[in-house]
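Researcher: Sequence recovery benchmark, item below. Answer with residues only.
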């Protein structure tokens, strides 16, 4: 049965390296677009709340409507991409979420906003697991951490760019126009991806221990996911739990962070550009550095140091920074400690996603989708609990202590993962 990949994509040496660079560049751009579309509603949060007359608790539900669908669809989208090929699936999902990004700009109240953001999350759910699936097909074992680092750094760059895009557009045309503008970017990416990308058969990195290549499906994915052995594996559940508590903290930055800085610590709209952008830039640096570190340390000292030790230490230090951000009053203090927190705990992110390839092999997309599902369940609870805690206490600092505790639990769980023992034999 013929594969979709063209002969030119199989050439080794300079041609193969050029093709991988192009694929990584496309995934980097996708990471930027993904977070531009995701963070824009957080930057516009106070304006939307005022315009649509939403309370803090109601705004928490708006934030979590996206996180809920985003989390629930991680496993189906990861498996769908593995099975049917990432050329088709990424094209479909990017077009889908771009449409609902634009629809956000026509929301008239709480109910319509909840429905639109839920449907938006259905599409964005496939971005991370399908990107991981592409990386697992095209990159060798010693390259996957670096590749993941660039992709996740790009997503943070998208978050850093968002206030510079959204705030001027809001000031000129209103918050609704910002969503219409950003919806068009995804359409352009999807067209280029469908024209230029071709699916690739799994490399030996994703093959079972026997080493023989399974026949790829007609659409470029592997046939079936071995959920029985996966669900009976303790490491699978440890990874999922670790990511649940990590994402409880990370989703604060993706949902409540701009609103917290504005309403909780008194930053003006004009100050939000740097107050939001700098922590995301720190996160971008953390992802790139973490990607290089996890590959270098793994090559020199083994996966237990390169993946496990790096992840555990990063999460522990970031928990301390989150605690200090809540404990020390003032605008500059919270800016500094939250910037450090975001940058340091994202040092572990390439390690976590590389673990899905190390331990998941041919099912890397499905494993990463499952991990991200649990992460987004954590984010769902963060978005809702943050809103209710603020509404009940009137204190925006109180939820930060809760988040610091969650990061400490994530660090503890990361220390129990054995990256040398595959989930699927």
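Model:
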């Amino acid at each position: 049965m013929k594969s979709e990949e063209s002969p030119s994509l199989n050439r080794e040496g300079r041609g193969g390296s050029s093709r991988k660079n192009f694929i990584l560049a496309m995934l980097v751009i996708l990471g930027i677009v993904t977070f531009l579309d995701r963070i824009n509603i957080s930057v516009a949060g106070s304006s939307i709340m005022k315009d649509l007359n939403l309370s803090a608790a109601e705004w928490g539900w708006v934030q979590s409507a996206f996180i809920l669908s985003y989390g629930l669809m991680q496993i189906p989208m990861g498996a769908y991409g593995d099975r049917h090929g990432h050329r088709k699936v990424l094209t479909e999902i990017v077009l889908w979420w771009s449409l609902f990004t634009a629809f956000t700009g026509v929301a008239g109240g709480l109910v319509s906003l909840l429905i639109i953001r839920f449907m938006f999350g259905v599409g964005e759910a496939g971005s991370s697991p399908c990107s991981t699936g592409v990386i697992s097909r095209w990159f060798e074992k010693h390259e996957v951490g670096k590749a993941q680092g660039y992709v996740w750094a790009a997503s943070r760059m998208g978050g850093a760019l968002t206030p510079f895009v959204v705030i001027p557009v809001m000031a000129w045309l209103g918050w609704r126009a910002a969503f219409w503008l950003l919806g068009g970017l995804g359409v352009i990416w999807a067209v280029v991806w469908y024209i230029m990308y071709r699916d690739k058969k799994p490399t030996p990195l994703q093959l079972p221990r026997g080493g023989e290549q399974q026949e790829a499906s007609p659409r470029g994915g592997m046939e079936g996911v071995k959920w029985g052995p996966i669900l009976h594996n303790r490491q699978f559940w440890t990874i999922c739990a670790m990511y649940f508590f990590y994402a409880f903290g990370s989703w604060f930055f993706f949902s409540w962070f701009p609103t917290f800085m504005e309403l909780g610590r008194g930053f003006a709209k004009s100050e939000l550009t740097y107050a939001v952008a700098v922590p995301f830039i720190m996160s971008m640096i953390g992802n790139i550095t973490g990607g290089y570190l996890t590959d270098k340390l793994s090559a020199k000292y083994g996966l237990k140091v390169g993946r496990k030790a790096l992840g555990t230490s990063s999460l522990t230090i970031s928990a301390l920074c989150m605690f200090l951000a809540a404990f020390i009053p003032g605008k500059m203090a919270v800016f500094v400690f939250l910037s450090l927190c975001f940058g340091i705990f994202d040092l572990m992110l390439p390690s976590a996603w590389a673990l899905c390839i190390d331990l998941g092999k041919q099912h890397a997309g499905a494993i990463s989708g499952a991990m991200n599902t649990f992460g987004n369940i954590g984010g769902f609870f963060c978005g809702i609990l943050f809103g209710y805690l603020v509404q009940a206490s009137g204190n925006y600092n109180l939820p930060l202590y809760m988040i610091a505790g969650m990061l400490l639990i994530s660090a503890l769980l990361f220390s129990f993962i054995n990256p040398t023992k595959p989930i699927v034999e």
